[in-house]
Amino acid sequence: MAFTAKVCYNGRPMTLEALQPLLQELDAFREAGMTAELWWRDDNATDPSVELDRLVAMSDRHNIPCGLAAIPAQAGEPLRKAVSGTAHVWILQHGAGADRDADPHRPTSVVLEELRQGMLKFNQLFKSRFVPVLAPQRERIAPELLPYLPVMGYRGVSSVHGARRPVPPGDLRVADVYCDLLDRPGGGKPRFAGAEPCVAAIVDHLRAKRAGKADQAEPTGIRTHHMDMDRDAWQFLEALFELTAAHPAAQWLSPATIWPAAK
């Protein structure tokens, strides 16, 4: 029997026909005795804001964990206070010390030192709430950096699927983003990418995993940018959480589960 759920937004039932392919795919996972593993990454965290409060409230309301990719050069004590009391927010490292880690002309030693300093800062600032995973800014990272990351203590990397990134060493677990809720047409102001494209991106990866054509151990990543989200993007995210949180075949993983500490 197919699973059905009432999707609501702000307490009001809403109809999103675009969500039906996802519902059907989750039903297929259930019938196959499989679990559709998902995870949520939000980028460019720096300071507390109304938008960050909204993200935390949504995370708490649906009990869905979020990997908050914070920029080392800009994150500090105010952000620590904003997330310290949350139940489901984890910190990831969004680049090196500044927004230049993708620059191929910078010496490897300089970038590695900035990464080290960023990790040190986050370990001290966020303690166990920090999961040492590198989410490169601009989705690019120099190939020569990758072998050093496990030695430095990184457990994994997260980029956007399809980005031109070299294959990382085997001791770095990859959990990429397969759906970005925002689009930047012509490099302009971010806007909601649209319900249909977002659902299609999620379903494509889930279907490939169910068919054994993609790594079944890699959760399907959904990315947001809380400071740039418009009303439609927030509304879609709410509907997505309503549907998946209620479906028995869907499971949202925390970064701490995806990248656990070594025993």
Structure description:
The protein has one domain (35-256): TIM Barrel. The model is unreliable at 1-6 and 8-15 (pLDDT under 50). The chain has 263 residues and is an alpha/beta fold. A hairpin with a 7-residue loop joins strand 10 and strand 11 (191-192). The radius of gyration is 18 Å and the shape is globular. The strands form three sheets. Strands 3, 4, 5, 6, 7, 8, 9, 12 and 13 form a nine-stranded parallel β-sheet that branches. The protein has helices at residues 20-31, 50-62, 77-84, 108-126, 148-152, 195-210, 231-246, 255-258; strands at 8-9, 12-13, 36-45, 66-70, 89-93, 130-134, 156-157, 173-174, 177-180, 182-183, 191-192, 220-224, 250-252.
Task: Please give a quick description of this structure.
The chain is an alpha/beta fold and 263 residues long.
Give the topology, please.
Layout: E1 8-9, E2 12-13, H1 20-31, E3 36-45, H2 50-62, E4 66-70, H3 77-84, E5 89-93, H4 108-126, E6 130-134, H5 148-152, E7 156-157, E8 173-174, E9 177-180, E10 182-183, E11 191-192, H6 195-210, E12 220-224, H7 231-246, E13 250-252, H8 255-258
Parallel strand pairs: 3-4, 3-12, 3-13, 4-5, 5-6, 6-7, 7-8, 9-12
Antiparallel strand pairs: 1-2, 10-11
Helix pairs in contact: 1-6
